[in-house]
Amino acid sequence: MRTKLEMMGQLRSSFSELNISEGFEFDTEIVTNEIKEDCKSLLLSNEQLTTLMKDMDDAIRNGLRKDTNPSSIVKCYVTYVQDLPNGTERGKFLALDLGGTNFRVLLIELGENNYFHMESEIFKVPAHIQTGKGTELFDHIAKCLAEFVKKHNLDSKNALPLGFTFSFPLRQVGLTKGYLNSWTKGFNCSGVVDEDVVKLLKDAIKRRKGLNLRLTAVLNDATGTLMSCAHKTRYSKNCFVGLIIGTGCNACYVEKIENAELFDGDQSKPHVIVNTEWGAFGDDGKLDAIRTKYDREIDEDSLNPGQQRFEKMISGMYMGEIVRLAIVDLANQKKLFEGRLSEQMKTKGAFGTSYVSDIESDKANYRETLKVLNEMGINDPSLVDCANVRYICECVSRRSAHLVSAGLAVLLNKMDEKSVTIGVDGSVYRFHPYFHKLMVEKTKQLTKSDIKFDLMLSEDGSGRGAALVAAVAVRDELPLKTNGVAAK
């Protein structure tokens, strides 16, 4: 009698013959042992994650200290944001959210009785600008800002407050001053690294005649997400972490002033938000024991080899490519598709991370898997091929979620707050069908047992948060002052 595996292996062209409406339920039993063996390097044990957590905790503590920060891989930049929204903010505020191939401009209005209104528009950053001159990038942003202001008939007589979310590693020296440490996520504009991005934007706005804006805050997307969720929960006092899992991956958290030795701002408030920039974790070799040959290939072939190694194992910019490299490798070993590959599957970047989410959304019959493979030029996969591809996707996304969970557990254990709301934004977290569940399960395993946490999806977090930081900055210019960001 033939085994189930043998029977499934004979069904190379059977999708056209099988009445899939009657259902073939997904079954990991038909994943081949060869594929499972080759994917073992993508599976992380709690022992490996615990070792990672110790190294990351050390890196974060080094980043917070004056004497060790210069050599620390995780920089822990202070954001100078010390206050959350408290409901007294009033007026119209603009926000600019730059963090990838698209950027957003938002207009937010805050009023009495929790009145909140938002309008936004998405603009594209053309590829030639992403890797061109820095002045061209900021001139393009200013042009789009001017179009938005004109479209919404905003008063140019009074300078409108503008919050600027800049989602790249940023060393801040004030609420309105920050220097780019390095480009990530495919950007490589000249003349911007080690420059004050706020000044570059201000200069571009000045070159745009008739554009009257007042830049009141610069922040990263994780900080914006934290602020957005604090506002969404009606000024929550326990929203202590902002987390991004999208094109990139980063986290910020609320730290005690005495621990943030590089902070030279208002010492009368007890806390300040720290932007970890943990995407660079492992750039010193601390992740080498768990990096695969696919991770090394992606890193070596990137615009920033040797940098952002933690992020490259997690984020949406790289997850699909990790899957593609694994598929190509295993097909070349004749463990997938009988060794046959399409030109598209051989093409760098062709397998988007959205495909990973699509494939793992399959409930039965591998409908989505078959659709994705057809789009990638693989027209006759067997059911076993589909099961194997799905398993590869699961291993890659599970590893991503577990790595994020380990980092998150480090922050939760370090703060040691007993109840924490974590604001989360980003396309991977938002669209992957199981990422939230994977994170909750693993973070609970790695966090102190008496710490309770909730993951809250942020709505337009980074953009909305930028406007809210601007609103809080304007609010604090008034005589009425508020308590610190994490006042008990």
Automatic annotation (TrEMBL):
GO biological process: glucose metabolic process; glycolytic process; intracellular glucose homeostasis
Catalytic activity as recorded in UniProt: a D-hexose + ATP = a D-hexose 6-phosphate + ADP + H(+); D-fructose + ATP = D-fructose 6-phosphate + ADP + H(+); D-glucose + ATP = D-glucose 6-phosphate + ADP + H(+)
Species lineage: Eukaryota, Metazoa, Ecdysozoa, Arthropoda, Hexapoda
Domain Hexokinase C-terminal per the UniProt entry, residue ranges: 241-472
GO molecular function annotations of the record: ATP binding; D-glucose binding; fructokinase activity; glucokinase activity
PROSITE patterns in UniProt: HEXOKINASE_1, HEXOKINASE_2
Annotated organism of origin: Sipha flava
Protein name, entry field: Phosphotransferase
Enzyme Commission (EC) number: 2.7.1.-
Pathway stated in the Swiss-Prot or TrEMBL entry: Carbohydrate metabolism; hexose metabolism; Carbohydrate degradation; glycolysis; D-glyceraldehyde 3-phosphate and glycerone phosphate from D-glucose: step 1/4
UniProt family annotation: Belongs to the hexokinase family.
